[in-house]
Model the fold of this input.
Amino acid sequence: MNTKSRQSGATVVEMAIVMPVFLLMLLALVEFGTMFFATLTMQYAVREGARYAVTGQKNLDPNTADQQRYAAIIQKIRDSSTGMYAKVTPKISVNGKAYEEADYGSGMFGSAGDIVVLRLDCSWTVATPLISAFFTDGKYRFAVAATMRNEAFQ
Done:
């Protein structure tokens, strides 16, 4: 057997050992980037939702027959999240009170002059096995919030 074919075989074995580790590290890096993107996107969405909330508008509610302010604000958050809203399944808190979807209602975001603290508690399911062990239940949990005062509206 000549030396060249032995070296070629050694290269294939080395690559077979190193490649899975390299790919896992690459996937972990991509996932970390996606997690940070989700955090920043949701921060932007909650800020846009709070800015919309303080105006007292309700024109974004998809239910055109009986538009509600809270539904319009949540729709604004969904629209501003570029699809991340469904991925991170946020829990909405307003002024420290956590709301479930069944509890959403008209007084949720206060009235004119009230301070509104809008907070979303989100969780991202980590898919890369290399880093999922570092998170409780394999989920990256984060919270984003915005505080504003409601404008004078009717």
